[in-house]
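User: I'm new to structure prediction. If I give you an amino acid sequence, what do you actually give back? Let's try with this one:
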Amino acid sequence: MRIAVVDDDLQQTQLLARLGEDVGYRCEAFAEATPLLQPQMRQGFDLLLLDWQLPGLSGVELARQLRREGERMPIMMVTHRSDERDIVTALLAGVDDFIAKPVRPGELKARLLALLRRSYPQQTALQRVGRFSWQAASRTFYVDDEVVDLKPREFDLALCMFQKLGRLLSREYLMSRVWGLEPGLATRTVDTHISAIRSKLRLRPENGMRLSSVYGHGYRLEEVDAPGLEPASGA
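Assistant: Good question. You get back a string of structure tokens that encode the predicted 3D arrangement of the chain. For your 235 residues, that looks like this:
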């Protein structure tokens, strides 16, 4: 999972990113809120750590705009503002949790984990579709209940494809979601990893899954009828 940290104080962004990474998540820092208004930018993140006072668009204004657009990503406000009126304003704007600076590392990590558990309860459960199952918390994929050895990026890519089952996903989306738009990343990298998970997970029609390329658009993982398979249970 990936966290966007938005704060114009470099020391604060470094601290928050480190605390997020301490509990096992990848973090990317932003000095202003405006980039997160772009759906293509924010769809690669699972949680937003947000300061109130920012250049241009404030943190609370960003939260309000995201909720107005129907964005459900959990948001935690981390700010020097801490009186009751500010807390109420932030919560009414759509913020899910509020923590005052100076940050107490233990408290922030505990609140972060609690918010992620509430927002993504499926991450701690074993999910299953046909012959395929996975557990996000342990980063493990299974085929017919046998563990499949996947590299970290392969796991992230496979998880993304199964979570978006049936949807056409662009290379740009997958690059943002899995690699975080790393500088110099070649689109061929996505193709190579798609080939790897197709082979390792045996994503073939005879096993009830098809991972196909849609020329000029991206990839789609979809269920198909396969003789002898019981109906798949949804995740």
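You can read the tokens as a compact description of the fold. Here is one thing that stands out. The CA atoms of residues 113 and 153 lie 22 Å apart.
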